[in-house]
């Protein structure tokens, strides 16, 4: 009887899949990306929600809400419900997910989608359950969880199913994921809650201490993207920065250089380098030998910091390759496993079982 029930369930899920836009989601601290089966990446928006102060009434989500960061009147708050790669506000995350799912699934609202969500490898069982429950309550028919480094490796096209060592570093907004993968499984992985957000904070703190200048998160990110670097540039850059003078309390403009920004980023970069070296030390000798030939692959928005690949290569002595499209690597990985059910269950079953226990 149980076998018949399982067969019926598979048939029903297959039939529903024909009428549903199954999707993969990279639920990031800074940005949420959505991949729809058969269409590719259809959404890339900031993980920001604007609500009325004292209520859970959502006023704006995504790009529109990000424009409100630091600029809202007293009755409106623009918040980021994800912190360090995990849910910090369950209710707001659910509202954000519902908005994104509805936005990309508007044509087939009667059939709920099956969703694959990428999660940091180091999160707890409670945090996994929160992600799964949020997606189900937001409208998912079935939810699979896949670890971000596995998704990123699949997304950049690494041969993870072969008995060969593959190493990936995925630097996101809230976390940095480092993993050595072989035979479709993680041999060693480490997740640290340091990423693009910590780099932005480091820039903000540097400007406070050096220039008594207070800038917002958006300005710090702009500085990091435009003139930030991890390795000395051939031609150093400078940039005019506007903010508030902490002494006088008045608007103030200063000019900073790329050398100064590089100095401000030393602490988060050192943490990433340390965990990279530690991961290499824990890698079995046979797989470590493979890395000498294949090198390390970098993905995630944080890997776009100028010269970071050169710095890691210099510190580890290994070749370092930047993915063709680092920002979409994880979400493309979730999309690829969607199209192969057997593969999907192979790379997500351990996470799914852990969540249910």
What does this structure look like?
Helix 3 packs across helix 4, helix 5 crosses helix 12 and helix 6 crosses helix 7. The strands form five sheets. This protein has a five-stranded mixed beta sheet, sandwiched between helices. Strands 13-12-11-17-18 form a five-stranded mixed beta sheet, sandwiched between helices. Strands 5-4-6 form a three-stranded antiparallel beta sheet. It has three domains: 156 residues, ATPase, nucleotide binding domain (Nucleotidyltransferase, domain 5, 2-Layer Sandwich); 91 residues, Nucleotidyltransferase, domain 5, CATH 3.30.420; 71 residues, Alpha-Beta Complex (Actin, Chain A, domain 4). It contains 13 helices and 18 strands. A hairpin with a 5-residue loop joins strand 15 and strand 16. The protein is an alpha+beta fold and 357 residues long. Helix content is 43%, strand content 25%.
Q: How much helix is in the residues?
A: 40-55%
Domain count: the total is 3
Share of β-strand residues: 25-35%
How large is the count of helical segments? 13
Extract low-pLDDT stretches: 8-19, 349-357
User: Based on CA inertia axes, which overall geometry fits?
Assistant: flat
* Strand arrangement, major sheet: 3-2-1-9-10
Q: What is the distance, rounded to the nearest whole angstrom, between the alpha carbons of the first and last residues?
A: 24 Å
Features:
357 residues; alpha+beta; Nucleotidyltransferase, domain 5; Actin, Chain A, domain 4; five-stranded mixed sheet; disordered C terminus
